Amino acid sequence: MPQELLFQVSPEIAANELLLKQYISKLIQVDAKEIQHIFILKRSIDARQKVVKFNLKVAIYLIGEPIQESKIELPEYKNVNNAQEVIVVGAGPAGLFAALQLIELGLKPIIIERGKDVRGRRRDLKAINLDHIVDEDSNYCFGEGGAGTYSDGKLYTR
Fold first, then answer.
1. pLDDT in tens, 72-124
2. Exposure pattern of 110-140 as b/e (b: 16+ CB <10 Å)?
3. Of 46, 48, 61, 71, which shows the fewest CB atoms inside 10 Å?
4. What is the domain partition of the chain in residue ranges?
5. How does residue 26 score in pLDDT terms, banded at 50, 70 and 90?
6. Does residue 28 contact residue 43 with C-beta atoms inside 8 Å?
7. What is the Cα–Cα distance from 139 to 129, expressed in whole angstroms?
8. Which of 33, 27, 147 is nearest to 90 (CA)?
9. H helices of the chain, where?
10. Which pLDDT band, with edges at 50, 70 and 90, does 155 fall under?
């Protein structure tokens, strides 16, 4: 039975399999040679502070333990090239997930977005911040990815 661990490491450790194995061996107090395999179950970045950290959830298999392969089944999507078209307004999270749901139902989504793509929005946001010029169709609210594209996902009030 694998041991599951949840911990924080630097990006350098998270990106290097050998360093990660050494770090985990110290955490669980076994020789690194005893670790047969490490599966990363979940990975996220904590960039709220000056020093960026990776949050990792791993499954650790020691020598002699049978390794259970992950059984993730990827969905098979229908070919919707010739299907009935449905208009989806907005390329934010809700619009993109609505389009995905339509594909799963066998319909062909046509996504319309009043704003620009992410790269184009960056230029427009620079104009807002530096020159105080607002493009009504491409700003923090409108454009590819919606209002959340330039958000850290945390809401707060003052």
1. 677 788 899 999 999 999 988 899 999 999 999 999 999 998 888 888 888 98
2. ebebebbeeeebeebbeeeeeeeeebeebbb
3. 71
4. 3-62, 118-148
5. very high
6. no
7. 11
8. 147
9. 11-15, 17-28, 93-104, 118-131
10. low
Residue whose pair of structure tokens reads 């850290």 in the numeric block: 152
pLDDT at 12: 94
> What are residue 122's phi and psi, to 5 degrees?
-60, -40
Q: In what order do the strands lie in the sheet with 3-9?
A: 3-9, 53-62, 35-46
| pLDDT beyond 70 at 28 | yes
Tokens at 5, concatenated: 């661990």
pTM across the whole model: 0.49
**What is the assigned CATH class of domain 3-62?**
alpha beta
Q: For residue 55, name the pLDDT band (cuts at 50, 70, 90).
A: very high
Question: Contact 35/64 with Cβ under 8 angstroms?
Answer: no
Joined tokens for residue 119: 């790269």
Q: Provide DSSP, 112-140.
A: E-SS--HHHHHHHHHHHHHH---BTTBSS
Rounded distance between C-alpha atoms, residue 80 and residue 83, angstroms = 5
Residue 71: pLDDT above 70?
A: no
